[in-house]
Each structure stands twice: as C-alpha cells, then as structure tokens.
C-alpha cells in the first residue's frame, strides 16, 4: 500500500523537541514547543488537578459513556469561564458547548460542522499563525486565505491592513482569530481594536471563529476574554474553541471544548443538534477524564480559587521572565530595543532573532528556538536566564 507513497513531513516543532532531548550539552535550553514549564524547567501537574483527581477516584461509579457533548455540568462551567458570569449569552441560553479532545478537537469539530452548512466558504487565517490552523481547516475541506496580522518592522499589529482585509471578506466565510496570546507572535489586538473587528464581522456577515487556547495566560482569566466579549456584544453567530491543555496543564488528557453561539435560544437548539451529529461521526463522545477534572475544579469554589491562584502564578512567571530577558539583554550592552518582548502576551514571543541567529544558538549554545524566532518564554528559568542572555548578546555582537 505504501511503497510508492512519499512520507508525510514531520511536525517541525515536535522535531525540535526530539533534537533537544538527544542533545548531550548540559547547558541546553528548550525554548521550542509550547508547553508551560515552571522555574525548575518541569511541566508540573497542578495541585488543584491532583485534588480533583482524588475526589473523582472516590466518587466515580462507572466508566460508561458520557453524553455526546460531554457532561452537561462541564458545558455550563465552560460557558461561565469563557463568557463570564451573568453574560447575556448564558442568561438567554444562546450557546451550545461540547467537550472536545483538546483545543485541536474543538477546532476540527467546529470546522466540520461549518463545512456541512457553508460548503462554499473559505477560511481566513492570520499571517502568520499556528501551523495546525491551516492543516485542520484544509482537512475539513476549506480553501485557506490569509489576512495580514504581524508587522515585523514595528513588532506590532498591522491593524489597518487587517481591518481593510476583513472588510473585504465575503459574507459566510470563516475568519479564525486567536482570542488572546497569539501563537506565534504574542501580539494581540487591544480592546478598542477587538471592538472594531467585531463590528466589521457584524457588518460584513463573516463568521468569527475564536481559538481560545490560552485563557488566563495573557493577563488573567477576565482580561483575556476581551475578544469574546466584543463578539458577544454584537449578537452575531460565532464559534469558540477552548483548550485546557495549558491553563489546566492537562496536555495529555486531551481536554477542550467547542462552543457555538447563536443569536437566539431556538437557533442554539438547532446548532446543538448538528454539533452532536458532527461529534457522533468523528469520535462518538469525548474521553471523560480531563473534562471531569475541569468540571470538578470549576464546580467547587475552593478548588476553583486554588486553580485561579496556580494559573495566576504561571502567568506571573511568564511576565517576570519577559522582563528578565529584556533587562538581561540591556545589561549586557545589547543596544537593539527588545522592549516589545514585554508588550507581548502569553507563552510565545516573536523574539526578532534572525534565522542565522536561531541556527547559531542551536548549534553553538544548544538553545532551541523555533525557526522564525518564536521563543517559548516559559522555557526560561532563573537557572538558565543568564546563559540565554549571554548567548543572545554574543550572537548579536558577531
Ligand atoms: N490553538 C493554538 C493557537 C495552540 O497554540 C494550540 C496548542 O498549542 C492549540 C490550539 C491546541 O491545543 P490542544 O493541545 O488543546 O489541542
Ligand atoms: O508549540 C506549539 O505551537 C504547538 C504545540 O499535539 C503542540 O505546536 C504540540 C503538539 C500538539 C499540539 C500542540
């Protein structure tokens, strides 16, 4: 069957992790794959997750199937997290949520669902974006188009170009947006800009699809939902794919959600029926464990408070490491302005390092950075920050 078939290309970011693991250099630093690490360089299980697992071990009576869209209490809690308590979307029962295998599963189910009812639509992705966006929406049958996003010269947003392009997107097309913590750039629109983008969506009739993979890792749980709130206020249909891989540290439990927002509760019921039909033909119903952990934490005020603390600590460490990197480079006499690294949000930063510098850092210093210069700021620790700053300063002097 495979003799005459060319092998599929490997994922370049995961390939970088492999190369890092095999590197014997004792000073090696992994700033590649988007996984949170604490100040000891490990990806911990959150204490609130351990506590929830202990509770589940005591109360779980059966491993029978979950409903197609997951535990109903999970859906309610996710809507509270995504939209905020008291949101009009919740009080008017305008959203359908399905527990999905990771954010990736949520994106794919959303894409499959839209494809069934908008077979002619294209999907617009930011330039640049997370590589899997193109893959997921292509796999679901969409032609892909790009809207301008990151400006390498100003290290900011190409906001006017972005808005001009979104004003030309045909009604019915899908526009995929990073709700916060843009991967790979770390550059997000501000509140005013989100409101302008949402107004264009309402005016032009394209379908917003928010990828919400990092809620709580930018500024905080509430502040990070600015984009969601802007679209919610317009009353239009939109989709939100949540991931709980990063903010709950549940990477290998494959835990996420897809939420479909409709203008009315009646339309939501129709959307929910088709959402379930789509899940049914993809994986029937979701894997339970990760979703039950999230549900347990969000349903128990003490556990939720503990989770908020642990998430705030992750977010705070990332912000502190951004500061340490910028200060460390300045202290070493690097005269290039790196202050934009402090303005970026979330785990990722477009460092502005050229591809030659990225290659040199890897070959000579065993510091692993994704091509294009994206660094995972969470890979920096108090033990490696001096080495990383020394190495970058040395690279830039060459
Ligand atoms: N969306 C973006 C922008 C991401 O960076 C990621 C993961 O890195 C995901 C979605 C998918 O997350 P998950 O691992 O939950 O599938
Ligand atoms: O670092 C990133 O941008 C992601 C991380 O199944 C990732 O590509 C890796 C594997 C995976 C999902 C996300």
Automatic annotation (TrEMBL):
Keywords: Aminotransferase, Pyridoxal phosphate, Transferase. InterPro entries: Aminotransferase_I/II_large, Asp_trans, PyrdxlP-dep_Trfase, PyrdxlP-dep_Trfase_major, PyrdxlP-dep_Trfase_small. SUPFAM superfamilies: PLP-dependent transferases (SSF53383). CDD domains: AAT_like. The keyword Nucleus does not apply. GO terms for molecular function: transaminase activity. Homodimer. Belongs to the class-I pyridoxal-phosphate-dependent aminotransferase family. This is Aromatic amino acid aminotransferase. The lineage of its organism: Bacteria, Pseudomonadati, Thermodesulfobacteriota, Desulfobulbia, Desulfobulbales.
């Amino acid at each position: 069957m495979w003799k005459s078939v060319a092998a599929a290309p490997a994922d370049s970011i995961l390939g970088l992790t492999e190369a890092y693991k095999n590197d014997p250099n004792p000073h090696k630093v992994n700033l590649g794959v988007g996984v949170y690490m604490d100040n000891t360089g490990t990806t911990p299980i959150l204490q609130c997750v351990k506590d929830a697992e202990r509770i589940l071990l005591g109360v779980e009576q059966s491993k029978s199937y979950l409903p197609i869209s997951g535990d109903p209490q999970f859906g309610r809690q996710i809507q509270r997290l995504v939209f905020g308590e008291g949101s009009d979307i919740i009080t008017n029962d305008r959203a359908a949520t399905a527990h999905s295998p990771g954010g990736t599963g949520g994106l794919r189910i959303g894409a499959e669902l839209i494809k069934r009812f908008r077979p002619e639509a294209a999907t617009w992705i930011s330039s640049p974006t997370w590589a899997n966006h193109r893959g997921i929406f292509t796999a679901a049958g969409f032609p892909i188009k790009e809207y301008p996003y990151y400006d390498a010269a100003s290290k900011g947003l190409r906001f006017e170009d972005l808005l001009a392009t979104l004003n030309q997107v045909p009604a019915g097309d899908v526009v995929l947006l990073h709700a916060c913590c843009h991967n790979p750039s770390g550059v997000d629109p501000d509140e005013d800009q989100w409101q302008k983008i949402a107004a264009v969506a309402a005016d032009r009739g394209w379908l917003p699809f928010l990828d919400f993979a990092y809620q709580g890792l930018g500024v905080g749980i509430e502040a990070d939902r600015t984009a969601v709130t802007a679209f919610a206020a317009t009353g239009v249909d939109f989709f939100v794919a949540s991931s709980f891989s990063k903010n709950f540290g549940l990477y290998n439990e494959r835990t996420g959600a897809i939420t479909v927002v409709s203008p009315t509760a009646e339309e939501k019921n129709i959307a929910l029926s088709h959402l379930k039909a789509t899940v049914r033909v993809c994986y029937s119903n979701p894997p339970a464990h990760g979703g039950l952990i999230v549900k347990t934490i969000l349903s128990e005020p003490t556990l939720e408070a503990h989770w908020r603390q642990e998430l705030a600590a992750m977010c705070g460490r990332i912000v502190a490491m951004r500061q340490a990197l910028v200060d460390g480079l300045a202290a070493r006499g690097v005269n290039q302005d790196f202050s934009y690294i402090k303005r970026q949000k979330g785990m990722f930063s477009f460092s502005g390092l050229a591809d030659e510098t990225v290659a040199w850092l890897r070959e000579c210093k065993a510091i692993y950075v994704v091509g294009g210069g994206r660094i995972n700021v969470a890979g920096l620790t108090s033990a490696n920050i001096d080495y990383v700053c020394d190495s970058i300063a040395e690279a830039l002097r060459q």
